[in-house]
Amino acid sequence: MEIALGTKAPNFRARTTLGEIDFYSWLDGNWGLLFSHPEDYTPVCTTELGLVAKLKSEFQERNIKAIALSVDSLDSHFGWIKDIELSMNTKVEFPIIADENKEVAKLYNMIHEHVSDNSTVRSVFIIGPDKRIRLILTYPMAVGRNFDEIIRVIDALQLTEKHSVVTPANWKQDEEVIISPDLKGDELEAQFPNGYKEVTNYLRYTSKPK
What we know:
Strand order of the largest sheet: 5-4-3-6-7
Mean pLDDT: 94
Radius of gyration: 19 Å
CATH architecture of the largest domain: 3-Layer(aba) Sandwich
Oligomer: single chain
Number of helices: 7
């Protein structure tokens, strides 16, 4: 199955630290953050999962449900969670998939054979309420993910889905956005009554829609 932007995220059933789930049912109309980590009891992964736990309220505000995955066992996950909570001073309340047979990892192309035959790379998938893949990021094993960037992209995705705007380089919440080049003439006045700043006929800035 092709894994690409705009394609339907594959559904799956899996055992997790919060029980067995059907992925589509678990999403339940929310946005999803599916991310893989190479191994339990490793330092970079410990900081990442600890940070996701600390960002719980940020994800809740955005209707994001986070779920992690590695090819380790449930017993390993449960033991490791204790380490994460102690070392990162947090509570891990999102599910971690035990993908010992690598079924989900292969379904989402999380194992890159030129890196490892067994461990997953640091994959990130943002999935919309329509179950379509909105973002794909892949980090190497030695480099921890930037979750500030992941949240920034989620904000941009949710904004551009609701309004006829796109976001410029390095855009952050509450900064100016760019009016979609597809909008012309009367449509501009109707959708942006507070005006806009035209740099070129295709680069037009406006305040972030409320």
